Structures are given as C-alpha cells and as structure tokens.
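re: that chain from earlier
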Amino acid sequence: MTLPGHVPVMLREVLDLLAPRDGGIYLDATFGGGGYSAAILGAADCTVFAIDRDPDAIARGAALVARHPGRLHLIEGRFGDMVALLAARGVCTLDGVAFDLGVSSFQLDEAARGFSFRADGPLDMRMGRSGPTAADLVNTLDERALAGLIRRFGEERHALRVARAIVRARAVAPITTTGRLAAIVRAVVPRGADGIDPATRSFQALRIGVNEELEELARGLAAAIGLLSPGGRIVAVSFHSLEDRIVKHALVEAAGRAPLASRHHPAALATRPAPRLRLLTPKPLTPSAAEMAANPRAQSARLRAAERLRAGAPA
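^ sequence. v structure.
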C-alpha cells in the first residue's frame, strides 16, 4: 500500500538490487510516501525501520504501520543521525538501506510548504519544522552570499543576476511568498530551449540550503555504509547532479575505486584502505521510457547501488 498521490521512482530496480530476504532488517532512510517501505515489506517477511524528518510524513505513515504490526517502525529525524536513532531502538546492523533523495511529491504538491512555484504559498521549504526558512535566507543573506548559494546548489549561471534582483526587490518589501520570488527570478533569467521554468534552479538552491541536504546526504551515506552487515546492500536514487555526485563518490571510495593521487602528491604515499563495498552499478541506472512517460518526475532519476563485502572478499 503506497499512499495516494505518491509514485515511488524506479521501484522495481530498487527492489531487485536491495533483494530483501526473510528475517532481514532494512532501513528506508527517506520514508516520504512509504512506497519503498511498503514494497520491501511485501517482498519478504522482514522488518523495516523508516526515517523522515517531516512530521507530516510520519503521521501519514500510521496506516501503513497498522497494516504491518511489529514489522514497520517509523522514526522522526534526520537520516544523517541514523546510527543514534537506530541504536536507541536496539539496531546496530542492517541488511539493506534505501535512499529516495530530494523533495517528496507531497511536499511539492502542498502550496503551504513553499517548495514549489506552481502555486503561491509561504516561502518556507523546510522539510522539518525547525530552522531558518527560505524567506529568512532571501531576506537576510547579502548579495554575494545569495549568489554563491544559488550558483553552488542550483548550478544557475545567472546567479549573480538573480541575487541582485532579490536584493533590489526586498528593499521595497520583504519577499515572503513563492509567487513573488518566482516572478523576481523569471524577470532576470531567460527561458532556455529545454523549457525548464527559469525559477527552477534558484528554488532548488534555496531548498538545498534551507535543509542542508548535501551535508546531510554525505553524513547519511557514511552512516549507512558503516551499518551494513556483510552482504547488506545500499541503494540510492538521486534526482540531480549534485546528489548523484555525492552518492557516486561515497560508493566508489568505499569500494576502493577512487582515483589515486598523483605520485608527486604526499597523499600518494598513504596506503589505500581495504575496500568495504562491491559496486553493483558501475554506471547509474536510469528509468525506463515507460516510467518516464507515466511519471515525469522520474526523468532525472539516477540509481546507484553497492554491497557490503565480507572480510577478505575481492571488490
């Protein structure tokens, strides 16, 4: 049972690579609409722990918990804190971890959450309920800091132009809604041939900045790799190049496949640590044409997976 309105991306591929087994303990690091959790529970007689920092997601999951008494356990928190969150529940090792990164369909579709420019709403963008909002960032960061954030997290080549426009607009009145911010960005960023809304990259940048998503992802991947038991698997679906780059680096490095430093660099003298993972996807998997046609939000998805090695096993 997946929650109405939620379509889990690359679900078949995630299940094939995660390979749930009876008696296993699995973590859905990004519960969201419960699609991965429900599928894992349906694939094997196993136990699933699921983390989400959004209290609304935890509340929506109550019905799924009721359908799987004793097998599904929801945890409100950040997946970067999974070691402590799971240890508090007596779990120290996992047989598999799944990550479905980015913003959920529920968050995008609810105007009051402020993630999307498709409907006007308060400029919030927080996945949880604490910390600064997107409105706080656009109304307090100076021009240089705003441009840096938009360039780094949105890969927006017109970042300085956008930052200047924001600073000019907020001098007239604080920017508090998604509609006003989108209009400010659209006025200075030309629409590209790809048809993507000019506000897309700036909104992505603010969302990532508000939620510290990239730092959280690096922490979560490191924690998940450390928790995997021998033969355990990690599967991550990302939706933009910044996420995919971090996933690739974490898995490749843990598999002992990271490029060696130049022989002239002091780091070249260091002994490379023994590999902990075996890559299951040397190149990322992408959705099928049928899935992309049925679910446009899947178009940018990239899936990477790896397996925890047994001691002494070849990578």
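The chain has two domains: 11-100+213-308, 127-211.
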